[in-house]
Amino acid sequence: xxxxxxxxxxxxLAQTPPAAAPAAAPTPATAQAPAKKSPAxxxxxxxxxxxxxPAAAAATAAPGTLATDDEKTVYAVGLAISRQIAMFNLxxxxxxxxxxxISDSAAGKPEIELNAWGPKIQPFMTARMAALAEKEKAAxxxxxxxxxAEPGAIKTDSGLVYRELTPGTGESPKATDTVxxxxxxxxxxxxxxxxxxxxxxxxxxxxxxxxxxWTEGVQRMKVGGKSMLICPSDIAxxxxxxxxxxxxxxxxxxxxxxxxxxxxxxxVAPPAVVPPPAPAxxxxxx
Length: 286
Fold this sequence. Notes:
Elements: H1 2-14, H2 28-32, H3 39-45, H4 54-59, H5 69-84, H6 92-106, H7 114-117, H8 121-148, E1 154-155, E2 161-166, E3 178-187, E4 192-195, H9 196-199, E5 203-206, H10 212-218, E6 226-231, E7 252-262
Antiparallel strand pairs: 1-2, 2-6, 3-4, 3-5, 3-7, 6-7
Helix pairs in contact: 1-5, 1-6
């Protein structure tokens, strides 16, 4: 949210009022097709050819193309803003209102006062996130029921669905242990959002320092084994999710391979302080 509020004013200040172009960017299809002109208009507007300067060529470049590094960077700003506002779950008409607000701000002619309506943004976002999370939970219900019905699956009181894929032969970790694992995480639609395999590096963490689903599920495993954890949002990332990769209310599936229970080295005790010898008594007076 802070990034969003920081980016939007910056983007608005960086823009200049449009000359004669429409506020909304054209669609890719429109960008590729040159506008048609009538023969009369072509005759009236015909002028001797002139040599275009680099600036003029850039100004007349086909709409929608990203010709320079600056243009691509500005486009990246738009992508960053898009990720930040995903939690608002805007409809297409609302996206058009957002575009209009940016153009109006750039022209110095906003329709409303930000100071008056800005405080309404947070409750609006909270309500939208809650509605989106409930929708995600409802969509996940069938997935969870199907996963719980798989052969060998165990559904616990917390809602975790646990299924062993490859039995392990080592010890099972405790919640206070540190473990080393390989894992892959996916959404219910199969989208992979994280993978230690892709990074080619196992993950290591204290088992009581991760989501509840992992704390509970990995304790059921044995070293050398591989299991699947299906985690409802209540024991994963809740209604907030982990934007932009994990939506609020999302059920997550993890394939986890328990490689090792990491032995935590005991802290080295500091060397004992040897007190200095007591001073010798003064000589006796004769």
